[in-house]
Design brief:
Arc Repressor Mutant, subunit A; 13% strand; Putative ArsR family transcriptional regulator; transcription regulation; DNA binding; ArsR-like_HTH
Length: 89
């Protein structure tokens, strides 16, 4: 999971999915281009989504010919449970 979060493009993809969940590859590419100025190929974005999916941060659902991507924050929550932040007074 740390490898998946190490890349700024993958973090941008997660930000976009957190902003609006359930997007297709086409929608993610469009949002990354218009909102963030990232002009990557669909293949490159697809590869990044594969890394995020392998890390458990993105889940997909096929409906007809379309594949929808969803952000799953559960792995991040597990980290915060394992290493809680303690505040010093």
């Amino acid at each position: 999971m740390f490898h998946a979060l190490d890349d700024p493009t993958r973090r941008a993809i997660l930000d976009e999915l957190a902003d609006r969940d359930g997007q297709t590859l086409f929608e993610i590419c469009g949002r990354l281009t218009t909102k963030r100025g990232l002009s990557l190929t669909r293949q490159a974005i697809s590869q990044h989504l594969g890394v995020l999916e392998a890390a458990g941060l993105v889940h997909t659902e096929k409906r007809g010919r379309a594949k929808f991507h969803y952000f799953d924050p559960a792995p991040l929550a597990e980290i915060t449970k394992r290493w809680p932040v303690t505040r010093k007074a």
